[in-house]
Structure formats: C-alpha cells, structure tokens
Amino acid sequence: MKQEKIRNFSIIAHIDHGKSTLADRILEITNAVSKRESKEQMLDSMDIERERGITIKLNTVRLNYNYKGEDYTLNLIDTPGHVDFSYEVSRSLAASDGAILVVDATQGIEAQTIANMYLALDNNLTIIPVINKIDLPSADVPLVKQELIDTFGFQEDEIILVSAKTGVGIEELMEALILRVPAPKGNPELPLKALIFDSLYDSYRGVLTLARVVDGELKVHDKIEFMETGSTYEVTELFVYNPNFQKVDAIASGEVGYIAASVKNISDVKVGDTITNSKNPCLEPLPGYKPMQQVVFTGLYPTETNKYNDLRDALEKLALNDASLTFEPETSEALGFGFRCGFLGLLHMDVIEERLEREFNLNLIATSPSVVYEVLKTDGEIVKIDSPQKLPDITKIKTISEPYILTNIFTPSEYIGSLMELCQNKRGIYKTLEYITPERAILHYELPLSEIVYDFFDKLKSISKGYASFDYQVIGYKPSNLVKMDILVNGVLVDALSTIVHKDFAYNKGKVVVNNLKAVIPRQLFVVPIQAAIGSKVIARADIKAMRKDVLAKCYGGDVSRKKKLLEKQKEGKKRMKQIGNVEIPQEAFLTVLSDEEIND
Amino acid sequence: MTSSVYIHIPFCSHICTYCAFTKFYYDKNMTSDYLNSLEKEIKTRYQGEIIKTLYIGGGTPSSLDILELERLFQIIKIFKLDKDYEFTIEVNPENLTLEKIKLFKDNKVNRISMGLEATNEKFLNYLGRHHDFNLVKEKIALLKKYGFNNINVDLIYALKDETLDDVKLDLENILSLNVSHISTYSLMIEDNTILKIKGENEINEDLDYLMYELISNTLKSHGYVHYEVSNFAKVGFESKHNLVYWNNEEYYGFGLSAASFIGNTRITNTNNLNKYKLGNYFREIEELSYKDILSYALILGFRKIKGINKKEFFNRYQVELDSLYNIKELIKDKKLIDKDGNIFVSYDKIYVENNILINFVGE
C-alpha cells in the first residue's frame, strides 16, 4: 500500500461520549466485523473495560475502505477517555496523523474533551469534530455546535453529526477521514525508523511490540535494534490486527503493526523508544513523546508474604504495556515485603489493583495513597518523599512542600455554590469562574493534590448529581504546614497507617481516623487502644472493646462435622487479615486513614 | 466400639421461628412411612452392640400420637441396653400427655428433655412456641409424679428486646421447677429459619455476654455444675449422651439428617425423605485421618469446662496432648490452663473459645 492511501487516526472523547460505539460502527462499515458478530465495544478486550464501560488499554486495528473506487488502509488507534490515562492517549496520538474529536450531543464539551483536544493539538494532528448521539431526544445539536465553535474555533461546516448507535453520518465521517487526515509523510528510502507505542506479552512469542513505521520498511528476518536500550533482535513474525491477528511479510513506512522478535526480557522494550535496522541504522531516534509523571503512590503488599515473587512478576507484566506504572521494592514493618507503586491517578491505581487481583489471582493490601512531597532539610538538601515513612526526622525538616493542581470543573451553574464549598474544605484556593453558556461554567481552583486523592471525585459527582466533570493539571509545589500523623494500634506504631496531614486539620483528621479504625478492626480478646499521634503527642484515641462472644452455643446434636466446618470458615476469614503485633487488621483498614468522614459503626 | 444411638424424628405440630433442623409438619401417612424406613435403616446398620445411651430427638418426638410412639418403641426394642443405660426423649409441653408419660415409663425411658425455651409469653411468641409456663409447671410435676427424676429443660436467651431482668425472671421460674439439668443457648439466627427470613438480627454481643454471665453465676449458686459451654447439671446428672459427643466417642445416628461417628468415619444422613425411603441413607461421608480425629478430639473436648484429661488422652491417642498444635503457647498465653492433670479453656475465655478452637482446625 502506498503511503498516500494510508490514514492513521485516533478517536478522542470525554468518557461516555460514545467513542467505543463509534469505533464499532467504523469496524462494521469497513467490514472488519459483520453486524452479526459485533459485540458491544469490540475494541475493549479486557473484562474490566467492558464491565466499567471504559477503555483503558489502547488497541490498534487495520481497516480497508474503498472510497470512490480507490482502496485505502485505515489504522484506527483506539484511546482511553479518562484523564488518568492521558499518557496512553498521548501514545496513540504520537502514532496518528489525525483525530476524531467526539462530543456527546446531550452533554456538550466536558473536562476531558478539552484535555484530550490539547494533547492532540500538541501532536499537530488534524482534528475532525464530531457530535455524537444526535438520535437522542435530549440532544441539543445547535448548542453543542456553538460550544465547539466558541471553545476551539472550528468552522460550522467542519462539524459532522453522527449517531454511532443508528449509523447515521458514519459515511460522511469516513469521507472526512480520507479527505482531511493527511497521509503519512515518511521516506521509504531512508533507514528504518519506527516508534514503539505499545507492547503486550504472548506466552508463546514473548513480547509483541506495536510500532508505527515512520521511515524505511520493516521485514521478517530483519535485524532490529531498540535504540534506547541498545538491545538487538531478529524479527521472527510481523502481524496486523484486523481485528484478528494476520501475518504479513513487511510493514511499510506509514503503517502500523505488531513485531514478534523472541523478546523474552520485558525490560528491553520501552514504549516511546525508536526501532531501527541494526545493519543500516538511522542517525537520530524519534523525539518520542512527553513522559507522564506519576502523581499518586501507594504500597502494594501481598496478604500472604510468600506471594511476593508472584506480585513482582505480575507488576512486570502489567508494566510492559503500561509504561506509566512504576514500582520499586518497599518494606514495611507491619506488612512485610511489597512494592511502592506510582500511578497517574486514582482510577489508574484502582484499575491496576483490580487487574492484579483478578488476572493474577493475588490478594493484596494497599496502603493509603500518597503524593510526592518535597522536603527542604535544615542542611539545605531537597528530598522527594513518596511515602510518609520516608519523611526525615522532624528536627531536620525546614519546610515541606506539596504538589498543587489547577482544576477545571465543568458544571451546571446550579451546583457552583456547593462545589466551591467542597473545594474550600479541601484547602482550595479560588482562582476563576468562566461561564461557557449561562447554564454551564468552568470552575478553577488550586487544590493540594493530596486532597483529591481519596474521595474528591466521588463527592464532586454526588454533589452535582453526576453532572459535573473534572480534570486537572499539576502546577507545581507550594510549601504547606504539614506534619506526619502516626497511628498506634495497641501501642505499636503501624508504619503503613501513617499519613501526612495539614497541621490545622490534624486533630479532626486524627479523631476521624481512630474512630474509623475502631469500626473496621474486629474486636480482639483484649481491649485495643487506637491512637493517632504527631511525634510523641497523642492527638486522638479510641478503644476497641474486648471481644465478648465468639462461641457456638448450640450443639447441633451429634452433627459435629458442621461445627468443624464453621470453625474452618472462621479460620479462613482470619487468614485474610494482617497480624500486626497481636492484633488482626483487615485489608480495608489501610484505606480508611484517608477518609474525612466517619464510618457508621 | 459404638455404644450410643441417636434417633431423629423430623415431625412437628408447629414450626418454631428459630429452628434450622430438618423437620416437617406432622402428617399421619408420612409418619407411618417414615417409621417403617427408620426400622429398615436400624436393622441394616445396627450390629448388635451393647447400648449405653439412647437419645430420641427432633423435630418433636412427642408430636407422634400414642400408636406411633408404641410403634417407635417396638422398633427400639432391637437395641441391647446396658444395665446402666441413659434413655432420653425430647418432648414439648403442649403434646406431652399422661398416656405418653406412662408409655415412656413402660418403655424404659429414664430421662426427659423438655423444650421450655422461655417463660415469658412475649418471648415464647417471638420464638413461635405454643405453650405457656403454667403448662410447663404442670407437665414437670406430672413427670415427677411418674418417677422421672432426670429432667432437662432448654432455655434460649439473647432475644430481641430482652433485658437482663427478663433473663433473671426466666431463671427464677426455671429454678422453681427444680429439675436436674438445664441447657441454655444464646439465640443464633441461622439461614432457612423464619427469623432470618423476617430479617431479624442477633443482639449486641456485650449484652449477650452479660446474660451468659448472669445465667452461669445464678445456676452455679443454686447447686448446678457448669460442665459444658451451654450445659448445667446437678452432680451426677450430666447428660451421658451429650458427653459421648464431647468425648469424641462413637455413636450411631439413625433417621433423616442424623449424624454418626463410627470407626474412622463421620456420616451425615440425607435430609431428603424420598432418598431415605429408598435406602439412600448417606449424604456425606467423611473418612477421618489420624490428624482429623485429633482435631475433633480437641474442638469437642475443650467444650467441657474440665477440658481434656492428659493421661486419658495419651492412652487413647498415643500422643501427648500438649505436644499438639500450639497448645503449649496457648497455655503460656493463659488461654488454656494446665492444672491437676487436665488442660481446659480458661473459664473467662469460654464465651470466646472459637478464637482458641480455630487453632485446631485447617492447616
């Protein structure tokens, strides 16, 4: 296929605006799947993606489309919608030449519409604006059109109206893809230069690398070099995905495909790295793209200590196609050996934890998430701290700074008051309020990142009855009056329960935390005091009463097998808890330290 | 050697709200079929051993009419009773008649267990019982008149809205009966019971414990020996049949859903009446390893307040009791007490003993 007949494009949208459904229609119109075999959300292959209705991992599919008698190859590079996964978005965009920007006709522009749009513009992509869900009775097409024109400066005639559900407007969209998205402009005569933008692990073939060839051509049996890691391999097989894996002999400049090269060492393949031909290498690697910064860190520990190696293997496999996940070994006195893991955000963390538990069958304890603090020590040294345990001794600290974010909260105007109150309670600093229309506004606040780590998003959704959407950028560090709050259970300091809190909020927070721990830690045979302390000063205390009853009073006649089974079940339940000192602490305790609200006992 | 027999009569004239045992509404045709099948099972399985304890439970054995009871006793004649035997039958006050009492006497029954459950009308209603305390008094007097001096009554406590004063009143009433044995159970709301379906909950554990403490102290101060978690008896009137269970000794269980322990095997009978009639008696057969047998010996033996005798244990199992599991450590932690040749659960930990017993199950 000649380059001028290739179109590489992505679809970007706010979550739930219908990106995956639109992708399904495009697959249908290009006959990649028949209507009969099409399941909902064809490209979302992970169970968790289908269940949550979100796209996490990008998928790339090659499509054939005949336009006015000419055959075209379209590579659709799927992208996730959520802000946490904007790293994945930027990867897809780096491999694309154009993007379809999908906006829901009933919702209008939302936080991630803007975030993703800016990422696409950073990559110099041609944008095709699309208003989706025009078949819904609540669709307000003129209003959404006006938003697109006012916010991004599109021309009215550029905007394509579709219903991914009914198929209306899809042909017009296909025409726009062919006519507006530029063909790749690589040079097939130059030495091979290809961008790695994803990889996955196949138990037979090892690592499969997904790459976009920019210059030159990639053939089976080529000797290739990963330029950053310097490792070399021979290409054993090449595939395109349509949406089944199909073997090909070569991937030409401008095309996208999967490379199998018997790569067993997962760390050799770095997403963003450049592949070249080791016999005829290119001079300069591709610029790659902006690496994402992990903003949330948490300790992950196997409940059973002998599962440490399993956890490490699982993390390595996940990191292979999720370059934004970082992890390094960590030891906790309370929890044993585990990993300090870095994530792009809370949803990202949630998804990774869930995948570890589901796909790798691990039982995990997650400690309370933390952001990265900057500590200026009295000797002038600046250290970065991603865990409360690593905080230097209080006498050696001059100031602690914490990361701040700038929010873009999109909301119907009626909720502005309550949302401002929420931000205020989270130590927010009011910046501006912009009205897009009289009914909708964007609220900008500066907030400490640590304040949104736990339940900010849930609260935002519940205050606004689900209508507000939220996005943020990290804007840098500001000094705060922060202290480390320790938790003592039965007199023993449990390192995994320590948090860094603002001094003015510490007393309240301490009270809430000890009461919540009291509610989730089951009674033991003795009274267990729970204390919150700053340094050696106890600021809050709650006592868990001693267990009074744990007995089978009834004897079931001679059916003592039943009694034994009940005891065995009880023992199993106990195993899932972590024994710290002589107290058994259930998994959920490690997350309760972040909550602002008291659990009802 | 098996020398104990349990027989299950799964019929009731009323269904109690807390009951999760296998039972059916009393039905004449069903009953006669059932007794025939029961006879068949006993004849198939009983090997002619000398029987020291015999226990007829339910359900409600006293819900059978006089002819059916006669038939039942005729079936039971097959058992060779030891001269020092204990033969118990469970009864409910409302269907215990003079005629039935005489029949029990004539057929060698020497122990009666009566479902008293509560003495206050409000709580009897909550439990779905159809008698009142006056009837209990009347029937106990009648039993005594006919020479039954070994009588147990059951008490259920920890009921919704029950106070310590309510329990105190129950205890006063029960003590006035002057019976030889009292079993007390904290109400458990189990699956497949009317209370569970109605969404009822068990009471707060602190109050539950205070009730248990009140019951134990009151009964002990009135001459009853606390000999097992839930059981109290005057000296010499401990239930021999229940001690067979706690001592990990063998027993036959005949009838629907009855449990047996014979040799190295624990058997639970089917709870399906049709299968039972066809002679498919067993639902579950657990072949015990040596380790399983020891595990049972511990979780059952430690229910007794006196615990387990070290010497007897060694003679029977050829292993030192305190060498098993983490018993030494539990003794050091004062959860178990090693005294006068016995090891037992510290008296203040009896009501949380599961926490100790789980050490002796699983891996």
Short key terms for the protein model shown above:
heterodimer, A: 601 residues, alpha+beta, eight-stranded antiparallel beta sheet, six-stranded mixed beta sheet, 33 strands, 24% helix, 34% strand, globular, B: 363 residues, alpha/beta, TIM Barrel, 2 domains, nine-stranded mixed beta sheet, three-stranded antiparallel beta sheet, 17 strands, 24% strand
Overall body shape of chain A: globular
Q: Report on the biggest sheet of chain B.
A: 9 strands, mixed
Give the overall average pLDDT of chain B. 95
The termini of chain A sit apart by 67 Å
Number of DSSP helices of chain B?
A: 14
How would you classify the helix and strand content of chain A by structural class?
alpha+beta
Helix content of chain B: 25-40%
* Beta strand % of chain B: 15-25%
Number of domains of chain B: 2
Instruction: Kindly identify the CATH topology of the largest domain in chain B.
Output: TIM Barrel
Structural class of chain B: alpha/beta
Q: pLDDT under 50 segments of chain B (min length 5)?
A: none
Pick out the low-confidence regions of chain A.
Answer: 38-44, 52-58
Total strands of chain B: 17
Structure explained in plain terms:
The complex is a heterodimer of chains A (601) and B (363). Chain A has 601 residues and is an alpha+beta fold. Chain A is built from 14 helices and 33 strands. In chain A, the strands form seven sheets. Chain A has an eight-stranded antiparallel β-sheet with strand order 11-10-16-7-8-15-12-13. Chain A has a six-stranded mixed β-sheet with strand order 2-3-1-4-5-6, with helices on both faces. In chain A, strands 21, 22, 23, 24, 25 and 26 form a six-stranded antiparallel β-sheet that branches. The longest helix of chain A is centred in the C-terminal third of the chain and has 16 residues, at 560-575. Chain B has 363 residues and is an alpha/beta fold. Chain B has two domains: 4-245, TIM Barrel (Alpha-Beta Barrel); 308-363, no CATH class. In chain B, 37% of the residues lie in helices and 24% in strands. Chain B contains 14 helices and 17 strands. In chain B, the strands form four sheets. A nine-stranded mixed β-sheet of chain B has the order 9-10-8-7-6-5-4-1-11, with helices on both faces. In chain B, strands 12-13-14 form a three-stranded antiparallel β-sheet, with no helix packed on it. A three-stranded antiparallel β-sheet of chain B has the order 15-17-16. In chain B, α6 (164-177) links the parallel β7 and β8 (181-186). Chain B is globular.
